[in-house]
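U., I forgot to send this yesterday:
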Amino acid sequence: MISNKHKILDAILEQGMLPLFYQDSEAGSVEILRTLYKAGVRVFEYTNRGKSALPNFKKLKEIRDAEMPDLYLGIGTIKTPADAHAFIDAGTDFIVAPIVNPAVAEIANKIGMLWIPGCMTPTEISVAQEHKAMLIKIFPANILGPEFISSIKDLFAGQLFMPTGGVEIDADNLKTWFKAGVCAVGMGSKLISKDVMSKGLYEELSENTKLALDLIKQNK
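Result:
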C-alpha cells in the first residue's frame, strides 16, 4: 500500500505547483481555498504567518472535509516542534518549513508525515537528506535562481527540489526552472497577491490559477 506521504508527494509532482498563502481573515482564507480548488488545485499549503493561522487552519480543514475530500491541505512556515504538534493536532496532511529543524523532521518522520524543509545551501540540503526529506524547498528562490539548481543537482542525484519565492506565472520563467531540474514550484504572492486578498479578486485568482497549472503542464 502506498503511504499517505507518497500519495501527497505524487500529488505535488503531478500538480507541478504548490500554492501557498496566509491571510488574517477567516472568510477570505476560505474563499481563496474554494477558488483554488475550483480552478483545479488538489494540494495546497496554508502558511503559519500570523496570529490567526491556527484557528483559520482549523476552519479550512472543516471546509475541506465537507466540500473537498480529494484536497491535501498542508501547513507551512513550521519552525518549531510546538508549531508542528499544534498543526498535526489540527489535522494537517503535511508540513513545509523555511528551515531545516531536525526536531521537526523527527516529529514528522515518527508519524510518517511528509516534511518539506527549506534550504539555501548544499550543507543544508545534505542535513535535510540525513533527516529523510523526500522533497526539498529551495528558498528564497528569487535570490538563488535556476542556476543554483543546475549547479547542485548532480551533487544530489535523485533529490527532488521545489523553488519557492519569485517564481512567475510566465512560460519562459517556468520553463527555465523546470529545465534547471526542479520537479514543482511553490507559488505564493505571484499567484495569491495582496490585491487578490485585500480586494477579493477571486475571478482573477481563478483565471491565474488555471493559467499557471496549464503553463506548468506545458513546460515541466
